[in-house]
Recover the amino acids of this structure.
């Protein structure tokens, strides 16, 4: 079984086909898809979607790209939703949260401060409830690490990891795994392919970020979670390993870092 640790199955690109997309993934041996929320408006949406298929679960959080339009009260609402969701076995963590200093608007001083405020409060929510986090990290590796070290959740995943080996070790040291997906399928993505090849396999989990970060054979089309096995096969080829071993280890890694998901799978 493969696990897609990051897929926006509720995205408008999927629309009414979302459940069919999950079924397609199941047929390709993708036994679980993690659907992260991005703002107050889709907290309920991801929970309702995840409830409809055996191979779906969800996380709750406010994405840094959504912070400009978020209200302070959204954090209180999130905490209330998390408190209510802990009794739902399909709720597995806090996400997608993090920092994005790549987009010019988000890199402005006032918006950086607001992002940090939202990120730190969501880390507190994760810590208070003993939950892992799914982190968005763009042009902010060291800053995200700094705040995670100060307010340490119960592990997490550095989604779409593209930092240095030193930064990778920093995440590993605080109990995180590193998410790799379609980016590693591009021959020009030299740093990502080097990371995916040389980092310990015990630190890697698979993801798609569907409908985004489509692999080379789909780009620039819409990515889907059924692509995980083929992306995993590229990872195996890069590492000179048997694809079955890559599947087994990355799936075990995902279960270890997302214990509520492992319990949902009966392990």
């Amino acid at each position: 079984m493969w696990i897609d640790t990051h897929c926006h199955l509720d995205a408008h690109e999927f629309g009414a086909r979302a459940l069919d997309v999950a079924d397609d993934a199941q047929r390709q041996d993708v036994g679980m898809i993690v659907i992260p929320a991005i703002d107050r408006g889709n907290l309920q949406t991801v929970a309702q979607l995840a409830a409809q298929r055996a191979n779906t679960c969800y996380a709750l959080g406010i994405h840094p790209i959504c912070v400009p339009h978020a209200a302070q009260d959204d954090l209180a609402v999130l905490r209330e939703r998390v408190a209510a969701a802990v009794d739902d076995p399909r709720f597995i963590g806090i996400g997608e949260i993090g920092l994005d200093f790549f987009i010019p608007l988000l890199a402005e001083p006032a918006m950086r401060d607001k992002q940090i405020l939202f990120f730190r409060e969501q880390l507190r929510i994760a810590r208070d409830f003993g939950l892992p986090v799914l982190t968005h990290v763009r042009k902010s590796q060291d800053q995200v690490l700094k705040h995670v070290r100060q307010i340490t959740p119960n592990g997490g995943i550095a989604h779409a990891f593209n930092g240095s080996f030193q930064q990778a070790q920093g995440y590993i040291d605080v109990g995180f795994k590193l998410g790799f997906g379609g980016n590693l399928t591009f021959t020009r993505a030299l740093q990502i392919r080097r990371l995916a090849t040389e980092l310990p396999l015990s630190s890697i989990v698979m993801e798609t970020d569907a409908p985004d970060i489509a692999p080379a054979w789909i780009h620039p089309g819409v990515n889907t979670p059924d692509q995980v096995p083929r992306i995993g096969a590229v990872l195996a080829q890069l590492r000179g390993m048997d694809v079955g071993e890559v599947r087994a280890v990355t799936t075990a890694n995902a279960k270890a870092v997302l214990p509520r998901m492992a319990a949902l799978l009966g392990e």
Observations:
- The chain has a mean pLDDT of 97.
- The two ends are 13 Å apart (CA to CA).
- Strands lie at 2-4, 30-36, 56-60, 91-100, 133-138, 156-159, 176-180, 204-206.
